[in-house]
Design brief:
By secondary structure, the chain is mainly alpha-helical. The chain folds into two domains: 191 residues, 2-Layer Sandwich (Alpha-Beta Plaits), CATH 3.30.70; 222 residues, Formate dehydrogenase/DMSO reductase domain (Formate dehydrogenase/DMSO reductase fold, Up-down Bundle). It is built from 16 helices and eleven strands. Pfam families: Fer4_11. Keywords: 4Fe-4S, Iron, Iron-sulfur, Membrane, Metal-binding, Transmembrane, Transmembrane helix.
Length: 444
């Protein structure tokens, strides 16, 4: 079925950035935020590498992950044009859509503390005009019209194909453009194995210095749920004041990660589609019901709270389903659900559960480190040894019946979990066109 779509011919694009300028002028964007970007593969102009560019903005996908996963319902689709529209007044600046979109279309503006993106020049196309970026292209590489998009052409090298039906028709790259044969006897030799080190580094959307609040928040979720579960099993006291203080701290930590804190209530508006909405709603329900259980001493309320708590653990792990990891493994030893099970096992002192969880987390951790080492990526051996010690030492001391307060064991365990969870963010990244181009270069 035909629909409004961009048409991009990689063979014609010369990387002049006129489309970027045209978009910026039309929409009045700031210099630090471009809604359209030109991704160049061969930035160092090496003659032995492919020479082509991708001009990409929002592709207004039929199954747009930004719209589906936004917890605040800040995205809608215009039925007449097919444009996916972002509403600034509804955005909370959580940046989750920037993780979900594989085309790097939603841009977080640090000045406004919210996200913004291409709107398909909806005012122009509604009047029968071309989008500003299309009009600005001097070589005809970028056009726009009613197209029956052929997804087979989305296999063009460097294009991110995630089956979300983007509204862009790609003209296949000619074979001659994939690897041009250029001879220059005067040019100095460049070791292709070292070309990667010559390429400019792109800033990752996920980094530990940005996500440290999420590290602490997710560990707080695991700790509070396991604590409440142990209390229901009659193995731990649950005093109201300490529980409330940690709960308030957890909420404060997650609020630091969003741009518009007064709009936090919008977090729970998209329970139908967003795991982030489900996480915040279920965790909030868990905290409220747990507090009510402590006050009323009603166990049935406690079991209801635990159900929400368990779902919040699942939701936390599912929130990160978009990320790609350097180790390329499915499971991670720092998963919040695994941390909660380990803490619960220690609080209840169920030896078989402690042993099984230690085995699972230890094997996953060693497996992951082996994968990183095999790929010659940073795996921090000294820190890894310390993490393994934090995992095993409490059990060894406990099994030897060395008399120590449970709080000491838990402190050591949490130090290890802090390392593991921090490494999860350090080793994760978001899928973007730039990364696809770099991966293609590595394969060559």
């Amino acid at each position: 079925m035909k629909k409004n779509a961009f048409i991009f011919n990689t063979n014609k694009c010369v990387g002049c950035m006129a489309c970027v300028v045209g978009c910026s002028i039309e929409n009045g964007t700031s210099l630090q935020v471009n809604w359209r970007e030109v991704n160049c593969h061969n930035k160092i102009k090496h003659p032995g590498l492919p020479v082509f560019h991708f001009s990409l903005a929002c592709n207004h996908c039929e199954e747009a992950p930004c719209m589906k996963n936004c917890p605040a319902l800040a995205y809608t689709r215009d039925k007449e044009t097919g444009a996916v529209i972002h509403h600034a007044e509804a955005c909370i600046g959580c940046k989750y859509c920037t993780w979900a979109c594989p085309y790097d279309a939603p841009k977080f503006n640090p000045s406004t503390q919210i996200v913004e993106k291409c709107n398909f020049c909806i005012d122009r196309i509604s009047e029968g005009k071309q989008p500003a970026c299309v009009e600005a292209c001097p070589v005809g590489a970028l056009s726009f019209g009613q197209e029956d998009v052929d997804e087979k052409n989305h296999l063009t090298p460097g294009f991110v194909n995630r089956g979300i039906k983007p509204a862009i028709q790609l003209i296949p790259l000619r074979e001659a453009h994939r690897k041009p044969q250029i001879e220059n006897t005067d040019a100095p030799e460049i070791d292709l194995k070292k070309v990667e080190s010559y390429l400019p580094r792109t800033e990752s959307k996920i980094s530990l210095d940005k996500e440290w609040t999420l590290v602490l928040f997710t560990l707080a979720v695991a700790g509070l749920v396991s604590w409440q579960a142990a209390h229901l099993f009659g193995k731990a006291d649950l005093p109201l004041i300490p529980f409330a203080l940690i709960s308030v701290l957890a909420i404060a930590l997650t609020s630091l990660h969003i741009g518009k804190k007064l709009r936090m209530w919008r977090f729970i508006l998209n329970l139908k589609g967003s795991w982030l909405s489900r996480e915040i709603f279920s965790f909030s329900a868990f905290l409220g019901l747990s507090g009510l259980q402590i006050i009323t001493e009603n166990r049935m309320i406690g079991y209801a709270a635990l159900a929400f708590g368990l779902f919040s653990l699942i939701s936390v792990d599912r929130v990160y389903k978009f990320l790609k990891r350097k180790d390329e493994l499915v499971f991670h030893s720092g998963m919040v659900s695994l941390t909660a099970i380990l803490l619960f096992a220690w609080l209840t002192e169920i030896s078989i559960l402690i042993e099984l969880t230690l085995l699972a987390k230890g094997c996953l951790y060693m497996w992951r480190k082996g994968a990183l080492k095999k790929q010659t990526l940073a795996w921090f051996p000294v820190l890894s040894v310390f993490r393994i010690l934090c995992l095993l030492l409490p059990y060894i001391l406990w099994d030897m019946h060395i008399s120590m307060p449970l709080a000491v064991y838990l402190l050591i365990v949490m130090m290890g979990e802090l390392i593991d969870r921090s490494e999860f963010y350090y080793e994760s990244d978001v899928i973007t066109p730039k990364d696809e181009l770099r991966m293609m270069h590595q394969e060559l």
